[in-house]
Design the sequence.
């Protein structure tokens, strides 16, 4: 059964519902509902992609998150540092282990 709501309109609907209920419910519960609505929105906007593309995105985003600190990125990704370095070399990331001139 289709409800006809986009991800964004679903979030607004839940936020409005939560705002109307705030005087009757604890703020903590209201915030949980808003977080859930945002997760639903993200899921609705998601499209399937190849695993290799998802892996590349995860590695590069984690590396950016750690400020370029490869050992920390490898730890967060639960992969070995050498594996991370090999993947970065495959992606052509400047400064990857084994590249000349780095």
Sequence:
């Amino acid at each position: 059964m289709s409800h006809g709501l986009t991800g964004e309109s679903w979030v607004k609907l839940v936020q409005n519902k939560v705002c109307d209920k705030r005087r009757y419910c604890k703020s903590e519960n209201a915030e949980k509902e808003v977080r859930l609505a945002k997760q639903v929105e993200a899921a609705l906007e998601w499209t399937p992609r190849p695993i290799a593309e998802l892996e590349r995105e995860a590695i590069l985003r984690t590396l950016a998150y750690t400020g370029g600190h490869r050992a920390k990125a490898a730890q967060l990704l639960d992969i070995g540092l050498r594996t991370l370095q090999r993947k970065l070399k495959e992606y052509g990331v400047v400064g990857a282990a084994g590249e000349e001139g780095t």
The chain has two domains: 7-45, 51-91.
